[in-house]
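2024-03-11 09:14:02 DEBUG pipeline.ingest accepted 1 chain
2024-03-11 09:14:02 DEBUG pipeline.ingest length=265
2024-03-11 09:14:03 DEBUG pipeline.predict start
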Amino acid sequence: MIAEFIHYLGTRTNPGARRLGYAGEAAALEARHRRCREAWLPHLAATRAALLRAAELAHPNSGDALLVGGGSVHDLPLAELMDRFDRILLLDIAFGVEARRLAKRWPKRLRLCRHDVTGIVDWLAKHRSLPPAELLSRPVLPQLDIPPGWVASVNCLTQLPLLPLNYLAGRIVDESALEAFGRALVQGHLHWLQAWRVPICLVTEVEDRQFDRNGVLTSGTDYRALLQGFTTDAARIGRWPWLIHPPGELADGRHESRIVEAWCL
């Protein structure tokens, strides 16, 4: 708990994002990574390999690469990508100590870009109600000095609705409206990626599964329907399991795994 609190204090984000819990979530993710390090190693290695494969398929030999969800740098092959790109831009709504340390290590090659890809966090922090449809429908691209030649969204797509929905819990009683809002955030991110009009890589979970202490499947969620519009024209370059909550991490001996896929467009 002390290490998590220290990480929370060291996380940089804006006041609206902090109000919605992004600093706390970044700290909790870092603590979870430390606890589950061994169980997560295959997933982190597979993510790095998929990103390198996607960068190779995109054929860039220079320019900038934009990595979305880069606040947690454990799944990013930064040194290897620097062999292919002039500069790496990490985009996230919050950045912890490790990302800032690496930016200082490579001041001319690695840049941190704090940006809310949903475009609705500050609005929610102020109004605490469902945002208007027009706000959800407009991809908000960050202002960059040089447009990237390759963009990757890394293990963040299905996480985008979680904190906004949690922040609205108790205020909005219409479950169907909340579900539609969550779907709109996911679809909005896919449109946001395509708005760059450059080669894209998407690394995301497509399914999660919960098991009891005896390994019996108790529930699960399939996210593939949310990706249909994107994957129609994309090519899958990887698929692997991620034991995100190994036995001992959850109460009553339960554990949770995910299926992760990597796609190129």
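2024-03-11 09:14:41 DEBUG pipeline.report The CA atoms of residues 134 and 221 lie 28 Å apart.
2024-03-11 09:14:41 DEBUG pipeline.predict end
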